[in-house]
Amino acid sequence: MTPKVFVYFILAWGKVVTEAYYRRVQFWWLRLRGRPEKVEEIILARIRVLTRFMFNIQHCQVWVEGLENVPPSGPLVMIANHQSMYDNPLMLGYMGRKTTFLAKKELWRVPGLGYWMTQMNCRPINRQDKRSAKHLMVELGHEIHQSGEALVVFPEGTRTKDPDRKINPFKHGFLRLTQTHNIPILPVCLDGTRLLNDSKAMARTKNGGRVVRVKILPPIYPPPEGMEEREFINGVRDTIIAEWEKLKVDWPVAGEPPGQKG
Length: 262
What we know:
By secondary structure, this protein is α/β, with parallel strands linked by helices. The chain is built from 8 helices and 8 strands.
């Protein structure tokens, strides 16, 4: 991380922390007055502002294709490839509806971040406890079905360590979320967030050309329990890889976005 990127990160983080302390009082007052719907409205608006600020402060455009494929309501599991720490704000701020996600429980100790994650109904997960994680997936599937939330999952399990940022094999946990209640799965392909951590890429685009691209594919439904799950998972991964190969960006990027510009 270059000194300039570090400064960008600190400025963005300062905004997240400041907003957390200010909104804590406001949300308490609104809930006390019986206006929880106003709280939800503010949360959605502020999350969009905060996440977009993280890209705007680095002079990075976000190009999004396929927003028409996002169901406006109802339970949904979004699955995407995972390149960097910027993927979470990308999925929170640019998907066209409120989203939530699973995160390691240690993140709730981070000032500001833990508060916003609670407000967004994010769920903590202990990645060391495999049995607990399996139980959480089944339980979470029931919660999503009842609440109609959109949950973001990165099925690679972690950010890829491959120098070419190739997409790793998918874990099968996301299927447990969807199968019991036949919750639709929305494949999402992204590229460019990897370059926000690349000092050479940042240096050669100081005069412009920083772009992150996102393509949202049509929703699909999980196979019935007992069918060839691994074959289904590999098929979803192959679909995302095929789109990623077309989507890949190398900075600087010239021209106009093919879809919506974020």
